[in-house]
């Protein structure tokens, strides 16, 4: 009698365990409550869920990058419109029928457009500056008390993951979008540049004049640290401001560019329209007119450079658009696989629940009848 009771209790505990499993599957629609229920299936679920989380992170990062890219694209389009406006106004300034008052108005207009360019160059999205280079936390363009605007970002680009172990460069930096190559020199050639120009080599390193002698160029690495690499001698002419010249290394693959800031170009153009030099000293009307004509050609170069940078940005943006589609597709596939592996078959759960109900009924009926037996009847 005692042995039979123990057997009944054991069988009842098994049924209770099964009931808990079926109740869990019904309420959560998940197949496994504990990893020990099916260790092989649990391992597969862990791997698949890890993939889901990975691609969810990639998708979020790419979507954020797309927002930044779209804003950068919009800003570049506005910058091109401003440069087109500047070109049109310089054509008017070079027209003989334009009065001195008209020239003054054009100078004021260009000064205002410079401020618009400054705002666009510091475009910010979600607390990140889109044209700052690899460190998007710093404001890329700064203005001093004299109104001179300087790029303080770097020549690198921030990399964003678009796939597991695969990264792509995002956007363009300040050198790309607000400077233009006023001079280019290759292996063994001669580079000419102004003191305000930024000199960038084929690897993205910047070379700076050594003050106060300005007779040597020193290489700075991508982190902005001075190296022991130098180029000398650097010569200059007697003009104001002077033009410098330097011979490039006789090494294959050498390419140096003297990049002129579009902000500096606008400042110089405004000064010429006002008939003053960079120090505020008056210049002749003939000299001013010659400078304005020259700067008109420089604005054309600046516009071409910005147009190339905009096209480059568009190509990179397209890569992220395609990457988002691919990552979204993979995420969908892994989501489906995760549900197929981990979801309970509700039809099967219903069948098992009904069978369990019948088993419970039969077991309780047996227990009831057993309890009704007297010792005499049991011995019989």
TrEMBL record:
Coiled coil: none annotated. One of its GO terms (molecular function) is structural molecule activity. One of its GO terms (biological process) is bacterial-type flagellum-dependent cell motility. The keyword Oxidoreductase does not apply. GO terms for cellular component: bacterial-type flagellum hook. InterPro entries: Flagell_FlgL, Flagellin. Transmembrane segments: none annotated. The keyword Coiled coil does not apply. Keywords: Cell projection, Cilium, Flagellum. This is Flagellar hook-associated protein 3. It comes from Arcobacter caeni.
């Amino acid at each position: 009698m005692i042995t039979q009771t123990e057997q009944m209790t054991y069988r009842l505990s098994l049924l209770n365990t099964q009931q808990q499993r079926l109740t869990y599957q019904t309420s959560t629609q998940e197949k496994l409550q504990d990893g020990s229920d099916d260790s092989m299936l649990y391992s597969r679920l862990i791997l698949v869920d890890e993939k889901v989380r990975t691609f969810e992170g990639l998708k979020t990062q790419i979507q954020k990058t797309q927002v930044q890219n779209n804003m950068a694209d919009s800003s570049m389009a506005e910058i091109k419109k401003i440069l087109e406006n500047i070109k049109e106004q310089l054509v008017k300034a070079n027209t003989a029928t334009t009065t001195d008052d008209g020239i003054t108005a054009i100078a004021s207009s260009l000064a205002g457009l410079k401020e618009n360019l400054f705002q666009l160059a510091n475009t910010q999205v979600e607390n990140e500056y889109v044209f700052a280079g690899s460190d998007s936390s710093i404001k890329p363009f700064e203005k001093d008390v004299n109104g001179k605007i300087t790029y303080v970002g770097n020549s690198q680009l921030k990399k964003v993951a678009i796939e597991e172990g695969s990264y792509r460069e995002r956007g363009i930096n300040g050198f790309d979008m607000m400077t233009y190559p006023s001079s280019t020199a290759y292996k063994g050639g001669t580079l000419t540049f102004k003191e305000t120009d930024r000199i960038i080599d084929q690897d993205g390193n910047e070379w700076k004049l050594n003050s106060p002698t300005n007779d040597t160029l020193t290489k700075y690495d991508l982190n902005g640290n001075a190296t022991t690499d130098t180029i000398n001698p650097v010569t200059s002419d007697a003009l104001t401001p002077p033009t410098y010249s330097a011979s490039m290394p006789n090494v294959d693959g050498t390419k140096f560019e003297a990049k002129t800031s579009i902000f500096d170009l606008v400042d110089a153009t405004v000064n010429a329209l006002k008939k003053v030099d960079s120090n505020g000293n008056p210049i002749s009307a003939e000299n001013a007119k010659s400078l304005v004509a020259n700067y008109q050609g420089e604005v054309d170069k600046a516009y071409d450079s910005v147009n190339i940078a905009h096209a480059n940005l568009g190509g990179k943006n397209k890569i992220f658009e395609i990457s988002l589609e691919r990552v979204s597709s993979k995420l969908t596939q892994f989501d489906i696989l995760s549900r197929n592996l981990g979801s309970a078959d509700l039809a099967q759960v219903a069948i098992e629940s009904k069978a369990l109900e019948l088993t419970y009924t039969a077991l309780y009926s047996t227990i009831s009848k057993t309890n009704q037996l007297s010792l005499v009847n049991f011995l019989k």
